[in-house]
């Protein structure tokens, strides 16, 4: 990928699953990677793995729902690695249950992590990118945000919100050298899917696999290529786009 060498890039939720795979790939591409995760040990382990493979990485314990903590961590990363160039909004969370059985406290947690998290990070980072006249924001949403997902009503609403938010940011920043794009994973073999399916005894995973034209769950490594592309110089004329990486589960014109 062109243009990633030595670029400071933040990956939220980089301690596990998809975010960890993204961090490793960006490290291989030469980016200076910041892992922002509330799982401190996991973040440190992911950063250590990137360094072990010859990359540059820093770990920060951050709860993305806490605006002040996000701003402090971005400042600390910039001191260590230079002015931030890229942001990957990846951290997310859900627990599958029918909407009717959920309560406002649960909705708040889901929206705080999946929508406020990206709002906080993007608010802190986007103005810095605009000041330098260059930068990239990539958000990991979900096919749930495009086509819905039974048992994930509030999560789907938050993920749909992320897609619309990225499009609007793409418009507001179109002449400032900053692009905003969204990747929608389908069901992926990570701890998140395992916990969502915990009460179903694997039945949800089985049903989802059958619905995927390529007949397999995604693996975390299915995403980093698309993330690296959106962050690269080759994607400089692409903004406000949403792409599903989900084995054909959802197809959009
Ligand atoms: N796994 C799937 O099937 C699937 C499908 C579609 C979309 N996604 C999306 O992909 C992204 C990554 O998911 P994953 O499956 O790798 O999940 P995961 O649970 O393996 O990893 C999520 C990471 O986010 C971190 N995190 C959660 N809340 C946080 C917070 N408040 N502050 C900081 N860090 C926080 C966790 O500690 C964890 O390290 C999420 O946005 C998720 O919604 C996943």
Automatic annotation (TrEMBL):
The lineage of its organism: Bacteria, Pseudomonadati, Pseudomonadota, Alphaproteobacteria, Hyphomicrobiales. The keyword Oxidoreductase applies. The keyword Oxidoreductase applies. PANTHER family: 3-OXOACYL-(ACYL-CARRIER-PROTEIN) REDUCTASE, 3-OXOACYL-[ACYL-CARRIER-PROTEIN] REDUCTASE FABG. One of its GO terms (biological process) is monocarboxylic acid metabolic process. It holds the Pfam family adh_short_C2. Residues 7-190 form the Ketoreductase domain. Belongs to the short-chain dehydrogenases/reductases (SDR) family. Keywords: Oxidoreductase. This is Short-chain dehydrogenase/reductase SDR. Gene3D superfamilies: NAD(P)-binding Rossmann-like Domain (3.40.50.720). Signal peptide: none annotated. One of its GO terms (molecular function) is oxidoreductase activity. Transmembrane segments: none annotated.
């Amino acid at each position: 990928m062109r243009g990633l060498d030595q670029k400071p890039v933040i990956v939220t939720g980089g301690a596990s699953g998809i975010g960890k795979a993204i961090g490793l790939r960006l490290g291989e591409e030469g980016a200076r990677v910041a892992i922002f995760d509330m799982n401190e040990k996991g973040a440190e382990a992911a950063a250590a793995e990137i360094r072990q493979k010859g990359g540059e990485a820093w770990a920060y314990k951050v709860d993305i729902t806490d605006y002040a903590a996000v701003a402090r961590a971005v400042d600390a990363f910039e001191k260590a690695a230079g002015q931030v160039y890229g942001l990957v909004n990846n951290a997310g969370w859900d627990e599958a249950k029918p909407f009717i059985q959920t309560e406002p406290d649960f909705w708040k947690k889901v929206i705080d992590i999946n929508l406020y998290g990206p709002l906080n990070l993007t608010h802190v980072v986007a103005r810095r990118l605009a000041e330098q006249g260059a930068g990239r924001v990539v958000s990991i949403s979900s096919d749930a945000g495009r086509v819905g997902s039974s048992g994930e009503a509030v999560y789907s609403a938050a993920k749909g919100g992320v897609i619309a938010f990225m499009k609007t940011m793409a418009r507001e920043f179109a002449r400032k050298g900053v692009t905003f794009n969204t990747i929608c994973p389908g069901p992926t073999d990570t701890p998140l899917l395992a916990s969502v399916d915990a009460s179903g005894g694997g039945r949800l995973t089985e049903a989802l696999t059958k619905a995927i034209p390529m007949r397999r769950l995604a693996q975390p490594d299915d995403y980093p290529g698309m993330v690296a592309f959106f962050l690269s110089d080759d994607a400089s004329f692409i903004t406000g786009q949403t792409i599903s990486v989900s084995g054909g589960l959802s197809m959009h014109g």
